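Changelog note: in this version the structure field was regenerated for every chain. One regenerated record is shown below for reference.
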Amino acid sequence: QDQLAESGGGLVQPGGSLRLSCAASRTIFSIYTMGWYRQAPGKQRELVAIITSNGGTNYADSVRGRFTISRDNAKNTVLLQMTSLKPEDTALYYCNARRDGLGYYWGQGTQVTVSS
């Protein structure tokens, strides 16, 4: 029943890796721009990475070169491979789907904690 469902968060040491997944409906996945956002305590929600229905991508400067967003079209899933994680990456990560004129959707969030 949920439009977006995230998974893959957890606790990892600095320098480690995590892979987040976001499962979407077929309809949303096929035409919406998908993205990952994150929100740390006391901070605004910020864009991490986005990927369009045609595969175009964009990344926040803070994660470029460390994170990779991709789409699995067969599974209607967007992935975020996170490597070389830093303590400042600690946040609640949200999946997002958006298309102008149609609206947007948010997942419930998955917690990523990077700590020694």
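Spot check on this record: The chain is about 5% helix and 50% strand. The radius of gyration is 13 Å.
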